[in-house]
Amino acid sequence: MKYSYHTIIIILAATVLLAVYSFAKPTVNIGGEPVKKSDIYMFMMGDSIPVTIDSVYTSEYTPRTGVDSSSQKILLIGDSMLEQFRWRLRDYCKENGHEMASVIWYSSQTEWYGTTDTLKYFIEKEKPTYIMLILGANELFVSDIIKKRTPYVKHILEQIDTIPFIWIGPPNWKPDTGINEMILDNVGSRRYFPSKDLTYKRFPDGAHPRPESAFAWMDSVAVYVMTKSRYPILLNPPTQKYTGSPNSTILQPWKK
User: Fold this and answer.
1) Which residues constitute the domain of residue 213?
2) Is 256 within the bounds of a domain?
3) Same domain as 220, residue 152
4) Which listed residue, 62, 100, 202, 228, has the most CB atoms within 10 A of its CB?
5) Are residues 156 and 240 in the same domain?
């Protein structure tokens, strides 16, 4: 297909404008909705975004004795809430000499992971020494959830077996019907991070944390792992900008 000289100029100009907008601090609003910025900024700057989040953990950042400083293979797996989170975990892994692999299963729930071999498959494939599970955001409003979903949580834990892990709770945007209580009851406070206790800036869907909040979310998780978790591993804050995409697998919603 041939383009006229003027068409090419218009396309180039639009591309430049989008690139400039991705670096701009103000956000343009159309019809009351913010225009989403492209990923050019994240690509060029190594996804280094200022952290601005209130955390119940950041004031207690004193790693306790017994922190495992050996190199880990971290499997980050769960639902779409880890999409931005994984970029900050990549920074921590590069800073502390760890490897990572991430799996995003869009729209997933404890039922999905608890009735399939998906988790077991990726454990066998990646052979992690540490697992971070972000799961539960799609079940905030399930009625009688403790009765309905506890068997799935137990099966998830059976698949994890003896591998050290933490379950990172959903970043609630509204009070839930029991998903956080159910997770906590099954894994215990030293393997559960209550993400609902943080404050987030979110995308227009009102649910998913924006990059700056997702990055700070990971910062709070790192503090928890180092100071409160059952399996403390070395997660010192990144001291420089890192580049390169996280090792990621994307799974589309399950069609039963």
Assistant:
1) 47-251
2) no
3) yes
4) 100
5) yes
Nearest-angstrom CA–CA distance, 223 and 197: 14
Q: Domain check: are 27 and 154 in the same one?
A: no
Q: How would residue 64 be classed by pLDDT, with cut points 50, 70 and 90?
A: low
Q: How far apart are the first and last CA of the chain?
A: 41
Token representation of residue 204? 């227009």
Domain match, 76 and 13 both: no
Q: Say if strands 29-30 and 33-34 run parallel, antiparallel, or are unpaired.
A: antiparallel
Q: Is residue 163 in some structural domain?
A: yes
| Confidence (pLDDT) at 12 | 54
At residue 145, the 3 state secondary structure works out as: helix
Radius of gyration of the chain from Cα atoms? 20
pLDDT of residue 51: 37
Name the strands in the sheet holding 192-193, side by side, starting at the edge strand that comes first in the sequence: 192-193, 165-168, 130-134, 73-78, 99-105, 248-251
Number of structural domains found in the chain: 2
The one-letter code for the residue type at 152 is: Y
Find the mean pLDDT for residues 51-80: 71
- Please give the average per-residue pLDDT across 67-89, as a whole number: 97
Give the position of tokens 């119940």: 56
Taking the C-alpha atoms of residue 23 and residue 37, their distance in angstroms, rounded to an integer, is 9
Place of tokens 């799996």: 103
Give tens-digit pLDDT for 202-230: 999 999 999 999 999 999 999 999 999 99
One domain for residues 228 and 163: yes
3-state SS, residue 96 = helix
Q: In whole angstroms, give the CA distance from residue 179 to residue 162.
A: 23
